[in-house]
Amino acid sequence: MEVMPSASLALDLTTAFRTIGAMNENDVLNLNGRVALVTGASRGIGYEVAQRLATEGVAVALGYLSSKDEAEGLAGRIRESGGRAISVGGDVSQADDLKRMVDSTRDGLGEIDILVSNAGGAKRLTLDEVTLEDWEDAINTHARAAFLLSQMVVPGMRERKWGRIILLSSLAAINGGVAGPHYSATKAAVIGLMRYMARAFAPDNITVNVVAPAFTMTDAFSRMGDERELERIKGLIPLGRFGRAAEIADLTVAAIRNGFLTGQTLLADGGIHPH
User: Fold this and answer.
1) Per the domain annotation, does 9 fall within a domain?
2) With contact defined as beta carbons under 8 Å apart, do 204 and 163 qualify?
3) In a domain, 92, yes or no
């Protein structure tokens, strides 16, 4: 004979589930007090991501290569508004610089809870034009930087049982893109790295995702061609316009806030893929 739970037991279970749900939701949605390292944060997508994280109460280390004034300017504005921020310079293609950026973040803000590996870029080249130096630079800037940064921050995340890692890739990793084989191949490597880490570290409450934009209007993208070429590229986009850095940043922060999202490649391409 089936035994039905009593009304009081059902009520107790409902209350328990609601309590657990509220606790988990608070843990997932509340980023206040967390510490983030965002590379390539002096302009473009990284700049917008850093601003948004700061408004969520996250202490932000803004990585930059050469745009020191822009990075320090944003860090200063965040501090003036009551937040915590520092700028950390370095070349992400150099292992020693990456370690220095991580160490500076820990010394200035505390242990890193959120990593956004955003810095990147490459010259537009055909297969015949790509030199070994171009290839190695693309590998080091995109795939190796994401790997080394993750290797440095994951142990602390595992110890604290909380972490968020976002790796910036590109639609070029999926459809080949227009920048060249060195760019598309190394951006594809980033997706492979994400898939491994997402599965490996999920038991430690660490989520790992890729944000893959396409044709986003940043300074670097605007230098890819003349006005006629940019209009041609725009014609490939079903939405009929280029993406905005702010839109990619919104997606990035949403992925950071979502504790149930991991192992995903989030395309922001105006409808190009799979068309």
Assistant:
1) no
2) yes
3) yes
In angstroms, how far is CA 204 from the centroid of its own chain?
19
Question: Token pair of 17, please?
Answer: 């589930």
Residue 183 a catalytic site member: yes
E strand or H helix at 133: helix 132-138
Determine if residue 27 is left, alpha or beta; phi over 0 gives left, psi from -120 to 50 gives alpha, anything else beta. Answer: alpha
Per residue in 21-42, pLDDT (tens digit) is 544 555 557 899 999 999 999 9
> What are the tens digits of pLDDT across the range 140-156?
999 999 999 999 999 99
Q: Is 80 exposed, middle or buried (0-12, 13-18, 19+ CB in 10 A)?
A: exposed
The DSSP element (H or E) to which 265 belongs, if any, is strand 265-268
* Domain of 79, in residue numbers: 31-268
pTM of the model: 0.87
**Whole-number Å distance between alpha carbons of 246 and 224:** 20
CATH number at residue 208: 3.40.50.720
